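R.M. (postdoc): so does anyone remember the format we settled on? I'll just put the structure tokens first.
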């Protein structure tokens, strides 16, 4: 990508009290004037401990449940101007989305997720974001894993803390971009995945939601 895009596609999941949760795909395209279109697509309910850690296209093939159009000026975002790829401008983008120096690495991970709800950034901007993440004193490379779409990823986050939620970014080994975010809890039973958000999945695995217009 030569330029960032005012567009995003996010696959999200959050564990319910029953242990499962519904898969949701949110697609957003917008303009610098604040107009745009958001589509919400619901897939199946999913429990990774029962259904397996890797999603199938069938589980994502659900239905569009909401479409919203934003008139000029109606979509409010922290930043509308296209960010450049310099380290300084990527730092300003993080600041615009709520990150402040001195807060913990978990908040930095959450800020990256907030940015990706609105933007698809270039490879160089991803590199600058990862530079900032790796400079955080309390964020560690936690090792390699397979994300819920079967991609080989590196996990970067806070070290495990018993009974406390831990957030991590997922970085693709293949394209070297941030492709996801997950939250886990460590307890006596081991590590439990409680939520995730994934990006970049249309380009990498070709999953296209059914009946989406």
């Amino acid at each position: 990508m030569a330029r960032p895009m005012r567009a995003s596609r996010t696959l999200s999941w959050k564990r319910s009290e029953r242990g499962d949760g519904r898969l949701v795909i949110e697609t957003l395209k917008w303009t610098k004037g604040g107009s745009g279109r958001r589509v919400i697509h619901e897939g199946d309910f999913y429990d990774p401990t029962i259904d397996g850690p890797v999603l199938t296209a069938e589980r994502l093939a659900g239905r569009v449940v909401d479409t919203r159009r934003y008139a000029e000026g109606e979509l409010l975002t922290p930043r509308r101007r296209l960010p450049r790829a310099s380290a300084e401008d990527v730092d300003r983008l993080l600041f615009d989305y709520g990150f402040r120096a001195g807060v913990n690495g978990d908040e930095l991970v959450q800020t990256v997720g907030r940015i990706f709800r609105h933007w698809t950034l270039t490879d160089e901007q991803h590199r600058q974001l990862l530079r900032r993440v790796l400079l955080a004193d309390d964020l560690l490379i936690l090792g390699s894993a397979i994300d819920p779409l079967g991609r080989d990823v590196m996990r970067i986050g806070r070290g495990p803390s018993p009974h406390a939620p831990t957030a991590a970014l997922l970085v693709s080994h293949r394209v070297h971009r941030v492709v996801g975010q997950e939250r886990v809890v460590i307890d006596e039973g081991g590590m439990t995945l409680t939520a995730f958000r994934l990006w970049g999945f249309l380009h990498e695995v070709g999953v296209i939601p059914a009946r989406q217009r």
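R.M.: ...and that's the designed sequence above, right after the tokens. Also worth knowing: The two ends are 24 Å apart (CA to CA). Residues 123-135 form the longest helix (13 residues).
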